[in-house]
Design a protein that fits this description.
- It comes from Actinoplanes friuliensis DSM 7358.
- With 497 residues, the chain is mainly β.
- The protein has 4 domains: 97 residues, Immunoglobulin-like; 126 residues, Immunoglobulin-like (Sandwich); 72 residues, Sandwich (Immunoglobulin-like), CATH 2.60.40.10; 133 residues, no CATH class.
- The strands form 8 sheets. It has a 5-stranded antiparallel beta sheet, with no helix packed on it. It has a 4-stranded antiparallel beta sheet with strand order 4-3-6-7, with no helix packed on it.
- The longest helix is centred in the first third of the chain and has 24 residues.
- The radius of gyration is 58 Å and the shape is rod-shaped.
Length: 497
Amino acid sequence: MKLNSPLRRAAIVLAGSLIGLTGVAFVAAPASAHATEVSGSAKCDTATGTRIVTWTLTNDYDADATVSDLVTTPTPVEGLQTGLVIPQARDRQNGELVLTQKVPGDATKATVKFTSRWAVDGYTDEGNEGDVTLSGPCAPAETPCVTADKAAFHHEFGVTEEGSTATVKLDDGINLCEGEPVTLVSYFAPKPQFSVPQYAFDDDSGKITNENRSVTLNVDVPKCNTQVDLFFGDKDDIISEITENGDRYGDRKLGSSNGSGARSKGKPAWFNGGTNACQTPAVEAVSQCDGTVSLSLSNKGLTEKYAVDFTIKAGEFTKTVTVKDGKGETVVVPAGASKITVSAPGIEDVTYDWTPPADCALPSVIVENDCETVTVTVENPEGVTPATAKVTYGDKTESVTVAPGKTEKVSFKIGDAGYATVEFPGLNVEPIKATLGDADCDGGSDGGSGGGDNSDEPTLPVTGPVAGGIAGGAALLLIAGGVLFFLARRRRVTFTA
């Protein structure tokens, strides 16, 4: 049966419309499938006490999606930032991006929110938001504490002229059951090497705990020989005076090869050194007229603790004197004891020879002429050294030693010489030249004899403290010459050196 033409045309149009609408629907359907999603999960890191949140971002479309308008709480997500690309879906598998976020252990919630956009067709998805509720405690696992004998440390230690500094640190991963005290102390020392006694100068202490895992200590050092020690212990453990048989820090000093000090790694934390003595000995020598030497010994140092032992040697004379700090002692070295040497720690040896003081009394000389014999008498005053007199008359010379407070005589057979010369080796005087003068050896009038200067010979030249006296004596002798002419034939004249 044939349909009429208008009806047939209407059916054809309707069928075409249905087919077109079906094609449009098929083509448009994939656009509505653009979507990205975000989801997360969390776990506690017991090593650090933080939560690790793992975020997964997916893309169900076969084109890359770009992230924008990003918001994360309470911390950033590592690697997630504006402009990041979520890869396209492939082989019916969504594109996927996995990122992590570290969140404090006490946080209660973590969120991620963003917008995704597909550049291929400009489609935008603003509904991307995910959150993770964080519940339950999250803290580091408790590390068992260790006792002091099992703790481990490391240290640094140094000493300069300005002072000493030490730093002690608790090793990582060590949990102390209780704090560990450590002390730095400096000392006065008698020598730059280890020696005793030592006296505490300055100290500094601290305590290492789990909260305060590092301690830095500083002390001053004396401006003289010193010892510095870094040891495990507090102020109550400081040895105020280190003596010969007293206490020691021993292997408590950090850096020791054994004992508690071996728990800390580093160079040996002790020091001995210095360039100056802590005491200042001094010696002053004064010659005395009697030949002795008076030694003034003094001691003034940086500490009141140190005495100084002075050793005095002079020939067979030896003596050791201990002088306390701030004190002085006097030692008299006997006359004739040879060169003196004084030794003491901290000074070079002091040497001294006796020399006659300028103000000592000098010997006197008496010259007698009895026409047969010339007699020279030398008198030495009290309180001086023995004097050696060298007496010359004519071509004859004799020497005599005169003790203090004593006299000695030298006689010569009278000859043609009109004067006698007396020298005093070792005394700071010039020789005495005494003229004898004329004597009446036939029983007649006496023309005078002895010490007057009645010839052309030089008269009694002297130097030193007696020069003025001799010159004055010569003048008096000139005046007395006329008077002595009438005196008895025996003359007696006295000269003083």
